[in-house]
């Protein structure tokens, strides 16, 4: 499994890893939810703490178009350059992948994730360029996919956007699933994703799914100020027990399809960690599947077949 790093400052990383590394967690994501986020400093802080009980094997930073958009950049070229420069800095730190997201709120008309991917692809094809090219940096891009749209038109639009993202075969290396409260819609989305990625070159794509650990505090917060694009039913929001049962079913679907879970709720205490362990069991690099019943072995991914992640370069 993976864990999203939810600390206020890079200096707080040491305390988090003292808790989580002892539990065997080795993969971390660095979110980008504010314009002031110092992503490189956070990555550097994580890399500086790799001497714990479980060495960090993978760090994936997020890059939000909403948070990183350059003011008055009408054609998106300055924001695209900023993204490429960030990818270059990540490459220097040994980072292999960046998760590219639009961020909450309405999408920008001039520049969004699709436009960014297109510019990245164009740069690969061009023999000349003034910005670092992702192919030369060895940095892949993760893209988001929300399988929980009930409205037919919205679902068709999400599938269309996924298809457009997957056209960039030399750039996109992973698909990241939004969380939701309808396991049936999740299954529908994963079956669609499996179909889209069933042929070369997409047999190498990784699929990671969001997990939100239910609690009274979390459900109250989602009622008061729900996250954009997060579809949670009234039944889910009104009962911790119901929310827990739905989340367990979601994790079971992830297991069936070989999806790696990423926990996106705060883990600050042993009690928090205990809840994660209760929900997911093994907290190492991947979910332990039951190979005796046709399931995948530890760290396998039906979409990818990739081996366990290697340790980051020093």
What does this structure look like?
This protein has 314 residues and is an alpha/beta fold. The chain has one domain: TIM Barrel. The protein is 40% helix and 13% strand. It is built from twelve helices and eight strands. It has helices at 13-20, 39-48, 65-68, 77-92, 113-125, 134-137, 152-166, 183-196, 216-224, 234-238, 240-257, 270-280; strands at residues 2-4, 27-30, 58-64, 97-101, 140-145, 172-177, 206-211, 260-263. The chain has an eight-stranded parallel β-barrel with strand order 1-2-3-4-5-6-7-8, surrounded by four helices. α2 (39-48) links the parallel β2 (27-30) and β3. α8 runs parallel beside α11 (240-257). The longest helix is centred in the last third of the chain and has 18 residues, at 240-257. The radius of gyration is 19 Å and the shape is globular. The protein starts with a strand and ends in a 34-residue tail after the last helix. Mean pLDDT is 85; it is low at 286-300 and 304-314. GO terms for molecular function: oxidoreductase activity. This is Methylenetetrahydrofolate reductase (NAD(P)H). Keywords: Oxidoreductase.
Biggest sheet strand order reads 1-2-3-4-5-6-7-8
| Average predicted confidence as pLDDT | 85
Helix content: 40-55%
The CATH topology is given as: TIM Barrel
Total helical elements: 12
Oligomerization state: single chain
| Backbone structural class | alpha/beta
Architecture per CATH nomenclature, i.e. the level-2 architecture: Alpha-Beta Barrel
Reading off the top of the CATH hierarchy, the class is best stated as Alpha Beta
Report, as a whole number of angstroms, the end-to-end distance: 22 Å
Query: Which residues form runs of ≥5 with pLDDT under 50?
Result: 286-300, 304-314
- SS strand fraction: 5-15%
Instruction: Give the SSE string.
Output: EHEHEHHEHHEHEHEHHHEH
| Major β-sheet annotation | 8 strands, parallel, barrel
The tally of strands reads: 8
The whole-angstrom Rg is 19 Å
